[in-house]
Design goal:
The protein has 156 residues and is an alpha/beta fold. The chain is 44% helix and 17% strand. The structure holds erythose-4-phosphate. It catalyses: D-erythrulose 4-phosphate = D-erythrose 4-phosphate.
């Protein structure tokens, strides 16, 4: 089965979210894209919903087994990462370079990658999103015991 991917953003990240949605639309590794907004067609009160709603919603979808991974955007990527990390079992990180994107999976088994529309160029963001989807955590690797400390702490 392919990756069930959540894409989300606040108002400050919506342009990148929509661009990545387009870029990943025909990616054969993805079986489903779940766009949790915000969207430009939203009512003003929904469009301006702050970043915590986006990060928490994405984290809940993963926690509840309805999605596998999420790529989220806000101004910096920081707010949506903090919010997603509030959900039990979620490992979310902001990353704007290729090495960190790789290690976020191979070292940390992150389910959520976040980027900032005010920080990184859109072409690089799109490339990093595609790279990130190509990495798979190895549960037999030396990193697995380190991740397990986190999951044991959270009891999930
Ligand atoms: O981390 C927060 C985000 O960058 C958000 O999009 C902008 O938040 P601010 O308006 O509080 O700077």
């Amino acid at each position: 089965m392919g990756i069930r991917l959540v894409l989300g953003a606040d108002e400050a990240g919506v342009d990148y979210k929509d661009r990545i949605l387009k870029d990943l639309g025909s990616d054969p590794r993805i079986s489903e894209i779940i766009d949790i907004g915000v969207n430009r067609s939203d009512a003003p009160e929904d469009f301006t919903k702050p970043y915590p709603y986006v990060g928490i919603k994405a984290g809940e979808l993963i926690r509840d087994g309805k999605a596998d991974r999420a790529i989220l955007f806000c101004g910096t990527g920081i707010g949506v990462a903090i919010a997603a990390n509030k959900v039990d079992g979620i490992r979310a990180t902001t990353a704007h370079d290729s090495f960190s994107v790789e290690r976020s999976i191979l070292s940390n088994d992150c389910q959520v990658l976040t980027m900032g529309q005010r920080v990184v160029g859109v072409e690089l963001a799109s490339r990093l999103a595609k790279e990130w989807l190509g990495y798979v955590f190895d549960p037999t690797s030396a990193s697995a015991d380190k991740v397990k400390v986190l999951t044991d702490f959270e009891g999930c």
